[in-house]
Amino acid sequence: QVQLVESGGGVVQPGQSPRLSCAASGFRFREYGMHWVRQAPGKGLEWVAAIWYDGSKKYYGDSVKGRFTISRDNSQNTLYLQMDSLRDDDTAVYYCARDGGSGTKQTYFDNWGQGTLVTVSS
Amino acid sequence: DVQMTQSPSSLSASVGDRVTITCRASQNINNYLTWYSQKPGRAPKVLIYAASSLQSGVPSRFSGSGSGTDFTLTINSLQPEDFATYYCQHSYSTLPLTFGPGTTVDLK
Predict the structure, then answer these.
(1) What are the pLDDT digits (tens) for A64-75?
(2) Angstrom distance (rounded) from CA A16 to CA A91
């Protein structure tokens, strides 16, 4: 079955640059677009970034544009999120999610990881 | 950006009730609308995509309708496992992909 496992979260200081990873299994990773979605404590869902199946196109939410970088390694079935210039308001659970609409015009998240908590605190 | 609103923000219901949640987009998004449920401490789970298509494995008591700017999620005969927060999300070509603020369904 589809499995997405995030790692790399923890307590980080403002300005630090952690990298999140998402290990994928149970499906042909190289055939799917992938996303990062985050959720601040007690808040709603916020889309963060997306990457095409082959890594050729990347998109970002306004709040992270210029600070975060999404990438993937299809040979390792792994998705990444490089987080630079972290701020307090980046504190959230970060989920990786598979694009269930890959190959169609719909973009939605049909499988999610369990999430990894990033806490930005000095 | 396409803004999404939901109503109500919360509701109380009993097992067996029929529950309706509304989602509105700030512009025409055709049928590019997805519904999710989320329980505390868990990842969201997709229920409905393309406004009215039931995701594989989701019980048939869940249904979605609407097109353009106004959408509805209906839960027929609410079950104990359905107490959760429900989010809509637009999947139209205009980025960013935005979610509604959520509707919490709790036990009356």
Answers:
(1) 999 999 999 999
(2) 13
